[in-house]
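Quick one, tokens below:
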């Protein structure tokens, strides 16, 4: 699997202690370019509700991946770390119906996929807004709705 994620030159690698990524990450999300699209990647926390009612947050590396020979869609992929040794999950951006900020906590946002809603947490409000705008833009642009995309060009590169 070819990866096209790149770190911007002015940003150091993600901070680790004993090989484990740290929360909150010291770096903002990173962007990569693919066929005119600007795709986001970075560390987020994913909320999981256990059957016993306990809420846990798992630190995960998430990124938008471009189509390849095996899958024709852009995917929101989930890995344990930015080393991307094993993909834990992936969702086609075509299946994402909405991405919106959590009104109760500005560092959190929701990704709605069919009947499921995933709660994710960014390191701060600014990064959460970047994720929401970028994900919404790539969803709109991959569906061909350029008018619905962010006018600032968060996701499309001219």
């Amino acid at each position: 699997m070819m990866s096209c994620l790149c770190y911007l030159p002015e940003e150091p690698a993600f901070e680790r202690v004993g090989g484990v990524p740290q929360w909150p990450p010291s770096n903002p999300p990173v962007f990569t370019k693919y066929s005119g699209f600007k795709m986001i990647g970075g560390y987020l926390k994913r909320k999981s509700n256990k059957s016993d009612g306990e809420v846990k947050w798992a630190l995960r590396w998430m990124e938008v991946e471009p189509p390849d020979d095996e899958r024709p869609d852009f995917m929101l992929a989930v890995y344990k770390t930015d080393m991307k040794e094993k993909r834990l999950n992936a969702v086609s951006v075509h299946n994402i119906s909405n991405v919106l900020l959590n009104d109760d906590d500005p560092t959190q946002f929701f990704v709605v996929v069919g009947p499921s809603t995933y709660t994710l947490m960014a390191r701060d409000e600014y990064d959460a807004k970047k994720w929401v705008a970028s994900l919404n833009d790539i969803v709109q642009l991959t569906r061909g709705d350029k008018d619905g995309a962010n006018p600032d060009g968060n996701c499309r590169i001219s």
